[in-house]
Specification:
With 239 residues, this protein is of the alpha/beta class. The protein has two domains: 2-116, Rossmann fold; 121-235, Rossmann fold (3-Layer(aba) Sandwich), CATH 3.40.50.11810. It contains 13 helices and eight strands. The protein has helices at 9-14, 16-28, 44-48, 52-65, 77-90, 97-105, 110-117, 137-142, 147-154, 176-180, 182-197, 209-221, 231-235, and strands at 2-6, 32-34, 71-74, 107-109, 126-133, 157-161, 203-206, 227-230. Helix 12 (209-221) links the parallel strand 7 (203-206) and strand 8. The longest helix is centred in the last third of the chain and has 16 residues, at 182-197. The mean pLDDT is 94.
Length: 239
């Protein structure tokens, strides 16, 4: 299968190892990877800020560039929801409406692609650590992704998954929300960090690097030893 990989801007700039891990995993499974470097953003920051005209300008380039893709795999539940759900809303009644619908039908968040599309649950990974999983809001609520990443983690050798209390509660990042309401965002994040730390986990795992960026920043400020890591990095690990 020829897979077009969509790497969100914050993954490209801040967490390239997550994208590299995805490429390694998918190529090891025998697939051909295409990475369109000209696609740098899905338009979500502008969309979430209510600037739909500006967001359409960015998103139109995405739907045009991906119109001939066989399947699109994305390294973020947040940006995945943008491509599959919000593009259809944003382009309703426009010239790109049909392209947005077609794109939605062939776009998958990474863990969902492995489990639901390919039927793969065991990648032969080994990660000797105690971890807890954070559900990003868009992946959970917009894409319905809950069990897929946990199924993958359950097959990682020497990994112990311990669920935190209120695992589905928002971490407080929310993109522009954290900039507009920093005190609320910080309070929500501190609660998330406390719940995660109470599990005695060594790592907080998620399929959304934007959440992990927020959580890791708060953990560092509190001098907590817990680290954050993207799901793909664990699945690519053989240590």
């Amino acid at each position: 299968m020829k897979i077009t990989l969509f790497i969100p801007c914050f993954v490209d700039l801040c967490f390239p190892k997550a994208g590299i891990s995805m490429v390694q995993i998918l190529e090891n499974l025998g697939h051909t990877i295409e990475y369109p470097e000209d696609l740098t953003c899905c338009g979500q920051p502008a969309f979430n800020s209510g600037c739909w005209d500006e967001a359409r300008g960015v998103a139109a380039k995405v739907v045009e560039r991906l119109k001939d893709a066989e399947v699109v795999v994305i390294a973020s539940g947040s940006c995945g929801a943008m491509l599959t759900n919000f593009y259809q809303e944003m382009f309703h009644g426009t010239e790109h409406e049909e392209q947005a619908k077609l794109l939605a039908g062939k776009t998958y968040e990474f863990s969902d692609f492995l489990v639901s599309k390919l039927g793969i649950t065991d990648l032969g990974a080994r990660f000797p650590a105690r971890v807890t999983f954070h559900d990003g809001c868009h992946g959970l609520r917009e894409l319905g992704i809950k069990q897929q990443p946990r199924t993958l983690l359950a097959h990682v050798k020497d990994l112990e998954l311990v669920e935190m209390e209120d695992a589905e509660t928002c971490c407080g990042f929310g993109g522009t929300f954290s900039a507009k309401f920093p005190m609320i965002s910080t309070a929500m994040g501190e609660r998330k960090c406390a719940d995660a730390c109470s599990t005695k986990a060594e790592y907080i795992v998620s399929n959304d690097s934007s959440c992990l960026m927020h959580i890791q920043g708060l953990l560092d400020r509190q001098d907590k030893p817990v680290k954050t890591i993207h799901l793909a990095e664990i699945l690519a690990s053989s240590s």
